[in-house]
Specification:
Layout: E1 6-13, H1 17-27, E2 38-45, E3 48-55, H2 58-84
Antiparallel strand pairs: 1-3, 2-3
Length: 85
């Protein structure tokens, strides 16, 4: 029986290399603690941050997507606040 895998990929291209590295360093450890039957990776190459998730369950992939968007939004808000101070 073939197992169906659901996947998603984000690619971020930002001119601020330091910001990309900070996001990478914040997100990379999280890809080692994913739900069962899910795998993830985060790579930083050529000024792009590439995040990939793959799960055997669409609901788990949707939960990862929501969690990732929440973390990314929080990180960008922290950067915005710090830059304004």
């Amino acid at each position: 029986m073939e197992i169906k895998l659901y996947s998603l990929e984000y690619q971020f291209e930002v001119e601020d290399r330091e910001l990309l590295e900070s996001i990478y360093n914040s997100i990379a450890p999280e890809t080692r603690n994913l739900p069962e039957d899910c795998v993830g990776s985060v790579d930083l190459t050529s000024g792009k941050l590439i995040v990939k998730f793959e799960c055997s369950s669409l609901s788990k992939l949707m939960a990862l997507n929501n969690s990732f968007i929440g973390v990314l939004t929080m990180l960008l808000e922290v950067v915005r606040v710090v830059k304004n101070e």
